[in-house]
Amino acid sequence: MFTGIVEELGEITAVEHLGDAAPATAARTSGRAARFTVRGPVVTEGAKHGDSIAVNGVCLTVVEFGDGAFTADVMAETLDRSSLGALTPGSRVNLERPMALGGRLGGHLVQGHVDGTGTVLDRTPAEHWEIVRISLPAALSRYVVEKGSITVDGISLTVVEAAADWFSVSLIPTTLALTTLGIKQAGDPVNLEVDVIAKYVERMMAGGEPVGTPHPEAVK
Hints:
Blueprint: E1 8-20, E2 32-39, E3 52-55, E4 58-66, E5 69-74, H1 76-81, E6 92-96, E7 116-125, E8 130-135, E9 149-152, E10 155-162, E11 166-171, H2 173-178, E12 189-194, H3 196-205
Antiparallel strand pairs: 1-2, 1-6, 2-5, 3-4, 3-6, 4-5, 7-8, 7-12, 8-11, 9-10, 9-12, 10-11
């Protein structure tokens, strides 16, 4: 479990494509998989094999680590359903370690299971903050409300406006300087994770039966 408070702006240093690890399906364009090497001296301090680290909001498992970097295997499902498939060496990424039991919940409850992707639509700078508008998949729209929480590329943010197919967030200078949202431009993809509480409430209100339009399966 994460909180959406980014600890470090890391960098992809290598991407090893592993080929067809699984057959293609209607939901997956290919069976590709990959191994990422990520530089992150802060999040790798005290790391061990099997630990979890969120990379742009996607919970990945540490396979190897050393010299301030770690490697993680990324399966086809994750590459196809998140923006990680677009990463290349040199890409900057948001990094966060799981919250320690009993620690402070600085953002909101974040699972690291991406529900879908959006696209940066536009940016409106102001003197002390910046408004960023992001497209919203129709299947996720019902979970996003004004002044509610949403995770964008692993960052816990408060929704300013919520429309049918987009939402906006207001970014303070710290967020702009220390996360990928400071460098994302119109057209760039971002990972979205909606508030998990909303999904559980919806399911319980429906008596356990499937509700609404199915949203993409979460990925890890």
